[in-house]
Specification:
disordered C terminus, disordered N terminus, 5-stranded mixed beta sheet, 22% helix, alpha+beta
Amino acid sequence: MTRVRARLVAGSAAWALLATPAMGQTWGDEGGPEVNVTDYGTVDLAVQDTDLAQVLEMLSIQGRKNIITSRNVSATVSANLYDVTFYEALDAILTVNGYGYVEEGNFIYVLTQEELAEMQAATRVTESRIYELEYLSAMDANEFIAPLLSDVGRAAARGEVQAGFTPSSSDGGADTYAYNAKIVVNDYPENLEAIANLLAELDTAPQQVLIEATILQTSMSENNAYGVDFAIIADMNFIDLANPLSPISNLLAGSNTEQDGFQPADNKAGGIQSTVGNTAGAAGFKMGVVTDEISVFLRMLDEVTDITVIARPKIMVLNRQRAQILVGQRIGYLSTTSTQTSTTQTVEFLDTGVELAFRPFISQNGMIRLELGPSVSEATLRNVTDQTDTVVSIPDEQTNQLTTNVRIRDGNTLVLGGLFKESTSITKRQVPFLGDIPILNLAFTGQDDVITRQEIIFLITPSIVHDETLWEIGNEALGYGNALRVGARAGLLPFSREQVTSNYNNKAMAAFRDGDLKRAVHWANTSLNMNPDQPTIIGLREEISGKSDRTYDNSIMERAIRKELGILPKPSVELPREVAGVGGQQRAPLNWAPPTTGGSQTLQDSMTPIGEDRGFDDLQGDWDDTEVEPAPAQEEDPGPVSTAPASHGAKKVPHISANPTFWQADHPAGFDDPAWRQTTPFSTFEDAMDAGGTNDPG
């Protein structure tokens, strides 16, 4: 073991050996330097202007330590030490004189600072260490550790992330770094340890902030109107006019053949009209009177419209990261760029609606600083004429927005401010002079009042969200989504395929949980008969039976590859010679099975492929009395199923048939057995297969 008590720099060393007398002696004459080691191992030292080598010699003898001093160590010591340890006395004497020591095994070497530095530099070796970063970027980490590196230390960082996250074809083919950010450091062990401690404190999960924004927009519009219109005619009838209030307009139009025109036959006619009341406009109440020569119309309106819009967008973001949410529309419009040689048109978009952009800064005391930019906007299209006299549409944006930088405590609500706008419009029309006469002016005036008031309030609630809260929110959202799905399915017609198969699936799952595997298989098969495309139920059946459904691959390339690799499937059972199929190929009868040595029937024996009748009576729910036991995990495929009795070496299972009535046959000869033909409604093996039977139980 090496013990170093000095700062290390370059230098060289030579040593001188001192004697080591027995412990317990007191060194020095009366009144001279004295060093004494007590029974408890502590040192009492009293020296005055004594050579350092002599003091070290006394410590060596009294402390029974082997002390070797460099030839470059020389000093005069004056000290009085009481009840200190050996190493405390050694440190005190050497430190004040600018020396140090190294302890290796049973030897203590007293050296100058230069010699100590040179000695340790010669023995120090650098090491390399990899630091994997979870949250801190590699470039930032490289910057943080730079002050901790020694003169020979080096660091390399990888894991920078390019800006943007929308992929494109131009990004293909690049061999980019696909691992966590890492930094590799080569330095002395003590420096590596300091770097590890620093990164452990810096590389921590950043906090997240949930922003709940409430944007309240109110709009009030009040319209009031009053007006009276009248017309007086002479030597004409109202039936000759376009409307009862247009005698002058029709006379000005002239010829009877012209639209809305009138010309009296005797060139004699007269009329007076007043339309200051605008009675043709919008009104809540209208009244009109037409007599032989006079028509009078009255219009009155009192309309109030209140509009309230509340938007509550929510968005979560990491600390010090930007976030944006838009609830609205993107209005598209054409942008035309013309040059001397060409004209280019592109489609651009204008974002409208409720938009919230922000960036949070979390403090250790629970305060949150927010950079905020909420806005509410809408757009209208306006037609304009470009330089080529072509009519194009451009969007006009009406927006209410604010940008601010505020500070608020976690979970509190901040009212950013209200944008208030009120407009009052009064439009008054009257007949000159007559409209100024009190009371009488009511018959010769018209007035429209419009009052509009708009107000927008932004309420912002930032909350620091912890991981446990996120998990709870996620579980609640999953439960909510599942409830919506269940509710949507509950509205289906009772005879729809989805509703019926869902009921069968529920029964299958309930039976599986209760341990009734036969009934679970029954309901699973019934459901798959109606809808074979149910991976979950197929998986349930495979889990119970221990077998997987496979289909034949018609791909020539796939078969060629499998043949080349030597993984083509091979028949596991030799077929009976007396059974021949189409093309001379042997085929197994419907109820054929290889000889067995007895034992209980496995659940695989009752399985049948999807889309074929399983032999269960859905209406009565009857079950065959055959005992069925789950197959052991290590049991091999029992092969095709037989309906022969145990005396013939075959297993007894529910018969496979398209007939809803259960029937079984104990005939080892299979389809060629005459007794079997007496009990089956089919005359040939192909007829049974066409009716839904199978020679593969599953």
